[in-house]
Amino acid sequence: MQKKEIVRSVSPFNNELRLKGFNVFQIEEDSNAVRNYSRKDFYKICLTTGESIINYADRSYDMTGTILFFANPNVPYSWETLSRSYVGYTCLFSEDFYKPSDRTESLQHSSLFKIGGTPIFKISEEKREFLNGIFRNMMVEQNTDYAFKDDLIRNYINLIIHEALKLQPAGNFDQVKNASHRITNVFLELLERQFPIESIDRPLQLRTAQDYANNLNLHVNYLNRAVKEITGKSTTTHISERMASEAKALLLHTNWNVADIGYALGFEYPTYFNNFFKRITGTNPLAIRPTEVS
To answer: Cis omega (within 30 of 0) on the bond before 100?
Structure first.
């Protein structure tokens, strides 16, 4: 099938990150802020000093001082900065960058990155200086022409991971203040992360409640109960409605044919997509397509 893409404006930073699969940078001082991170495909390690509240999966962490934080792209989170002075380092990297061969363990199974694991560690002043040095070394290496710099950077990432595994996890968190709310928020944010669909070469991967439960390391019945309790809709209904919304956007704003749109949304046959679309929207796909792209 011929590759078709939606042309979107992308910043040079995003282009560089996508090409290399890695970027490291220093966090500058800033004022109070709330950040919702939703960058697809990239794992994140942050070393920060300041006061913050981090909402991650079904837990909230109230942190002061220096922390080391590990983020999985499949687990949405928000980070509220409370102190006016907030500094440190961040590195972003893709699974493909970190895992160049099938012999390397997937980050999804790491205790630092999986949803049930521990993503945050308190860091002493002595350890902070040591880790600062590793991040600075990565910043230097990413701008060199050294032929094996990717291998060296992977070694630095592994060194940070091993330092974290030796530490005791941060215990100052409030788990299941309202478990159903947090599970639902995680699901809805993960659902939104699957969109927009930008290429037929990368069709939608998560299409069922079971797919989302597997990615969130939850039993599907637990996920379904939580979502239904909070929203009044089933997990499947949320997924179907979001897929239909994306289908409408692709019909209105691209010149992809209906078969291509169906394939991009995970339907093997156009008939399956047409039946799905009519069931959700009450009309067929071509009925909403502008005349000039039909």
So the answer is: no
pLDDT of residue 60: 75
Residue 91 pLDDT class (50, 70, 90 cuts): very high
pLDDT over 50 (residue 38): no
Q: How far apart are CA 253 and CA 32, in angstroms?
A: 37
Domain count of the fold of the chain: 2
Q: What is the pLDDT of residue 258?
A: 95
DSSP 150-194: HHHHHHHHHHHHHHHHTSPPP--EEE-SSHHHHHHHHHHHHHHHT
Q: Is there a single domain that holds both residue 220 and residue 79?
A: no
Q: What letter would DSSP give residue 42?
A: E
Q: Which of residues 175, 200, 233 is at a domain's end? A: 175
DSSP state of 46: E
Question: Strand locations in the chain, DSSP E?
Answer: 22-27, 33-37, 42-56, 59-71, 77-81, 87-94, 120-122, 173-175
Phi, psi of 111 (to 5 degrees): -65, -20
Supply the pLDDT for residue 136: 96
Q: Which has more pLDDT, 61 or 261?
A: 261
- Statement to judge: residues 78 and 144 lie in one domain: yes
Which one-letter amino acid corresponds to residue 3? K
Domain annotation covers residue 5? no
The whole-number pLDDT of residue 36 equals 46
Tell me, yes or no, whether 131 and 17 share the same domain. Answer: yes
Domain that holds residue 71: 12-175
- Residue tagged 């909403």 (tokens): 288
- Does residue 224 have a pLDDT over 80? yes
Q: Are residues 31 and 163 part of one domain? A: yes
Q: How many residues are given for the chain?
A: 294
Domain boundary (175, 196, 223) is at 175
CATH classification at residue 97 = 2.60.120.280
Residue 103, classed as helix, strand or coil, is coil
